[in-house]
Amino acid sequence: MSSVQEELSKLKAEASKKVAEAERLVRLSTAYPDLQKHVGRWEKVVYYSPSVNPKVVQYDLRHNCGCCSDSPLEVWPYLETKDGRVYSDPPCFQVGEKYYLGGDRPYPKWEEAFEKAGISEVITEAISAHFRFDRDSRIRAACEEDEVPEDPEPFF
Question: Within a 10 A sphere around the Cβ of 59, how many other Cβ atoms?
């Protein structure tokens, strides 16, 4: 059990955090009047605005699910501001999926969604580089596995 004073302290701390978050959102919505809220999988909450699309140069890259062998690969482009991140519109792009041989495999024409949304080419180039590096890594690993060692001397 907790005392009433402990409960009051806890509630005041929670209220203080909510007020600070509200003030942050007021500043963001003043800077970006078209700001919207998006709640993604696993309760990921982001604020997004179409006006940042050509300005985004950073991104989160993650798989939608940690346990599925074909989990979609998501890109969440954003602009870092003094009041926090503002994500692009749409805030999330599914660009590929986990590959059963390891790594990631791009979806066909994944770049078109970025182009249509007016997302900075910096993001598109970075994701293309991710897929190229990932593919090259799988090829190198496969080549190393294909190297057959010399047959051991017979035991008899």
Answer: 20
pTM tops 0.90, yes or no: no
Residue type, 117: A
Cα–Cα distance measured from residue 82 to residue 29, given in angstroms and rounded to the nearest whole number: 13
Domains of the chain by residue range: 35-146
| Helices and strands in the chain: count of H runs, count of E runs | 3, 7
Please state, in angstroms and as integers, the Cα–Cα distance from residue 63 to each residue in 85, 90, 140, 145, 154, following that order: 20, 17, 23, 27, 48
DSSP annotation of 118 reads T
Taking a C-beta distance cutoff of 8 angstroms, is the pair 78, 92 a contact?
no
What is the rounded average pLDDT for all residues in the chain?
87
Higher pLDDT residue, 22 or 100?
A: 22
